[in-house]
Amino acid sequence: MTMPRLIVSDVDRTLLTHDYVLPQRVADAVRVAQDRGTVVVLATARSPLGVRPFAERLGIADLVVAFNGGWIGNVATGSALSQQRISRSDALHAMATAQAAGVRPMWFTGDAVFALMNDPLIAREAAVTREPLFVAETIEALPGEPGKIMCVAGGPPDREAFAMLRETLGERLSVSRSHPRLLEIGPPGVSKKTAISLVTARLGFAPAECAAAGDAENDLEMLAWAGTAMTVANAVPPVIELAHFVGPSCDEGGLADAIAWLMRSQQPKSTAAQSMGGRDG
User: Fold this and answer.
1) Can you tell me the distance from the alpha carbon of 14 to that of 7, in angstroms, rounded to the nearest whole number?
2) Among the listed residues 88, 218, 239, the one whose alpha carbon sits nearest the alpha carbon of residue 166
3) Residues 43, 92: one domain?
4) First-last CA distance in the chain
5) 180: DSSP letter
6) Domain boundary among 164, 186, 208
7) Taking the complete model, does pTM exceed 0.85, yes or no?
8) How many domains does the chain have?
9) Does the pLDDT value for residue 190 go beyond 60?
10) Which among 196, 246, 202, 201 has a CA at the least distance from the CA of 221?
């Protein structure tokens, strides 16, 4: 295995801890990869605004995949290379269906978040990404066409509604989980994989020359596409089964171990994984 030309990483619970902190050792590892000539790209379900602070801190704000692949561009300037939105009719239908199912839908414009009611779980999610939150008086008052809709579950009964939403909305929209309590709804055909495929085609990189890191269902296609798949110990089981390398939990900065493993790629895999404290798949 040779050092990949591109590393694409999920953000929440992969790059960041469960408390949404970027460990210094992870930031240092990203810079080491860049110094070795590897392009590093973030691919996230967050909005461009929500991911911007971390992309800027890492010095990689000029090329970011946001909204689960629905937006590609420079998060510092807001300039988009590619952008897809949910049609207003489909978005309003999704909001009404999710609201009726009791799973707290949130309408993301890219500049702000809109909800249909005041709810502490919605407020918590908006606070995570530090985006302004507004409550629309009626569903028709929701503005324009959203980049994504995110549904928030409050407990197991709400999460059971996710299966119904996937079945109801999945034929017309992209639907996937970014966390057991979060269901992401986007334009049809949108995914992190399709977005990073577009990015690498523009850069002239083949999938075999790329490494991907993620932890959740919405990362699976991207991880399967990349030549090398990496994850952290807190990932969902299907991701761990797919990964070539499993590092410690995101709370321990496990992505730094994965990047260090890539840096040591000239060594036999078993030696590299053992020396870095991870599991070589």
Assistant:
1) 13
2) 218
3) no
4) 13
5) T
6) 186
7) yes
8) 2
9) yes
10) 196
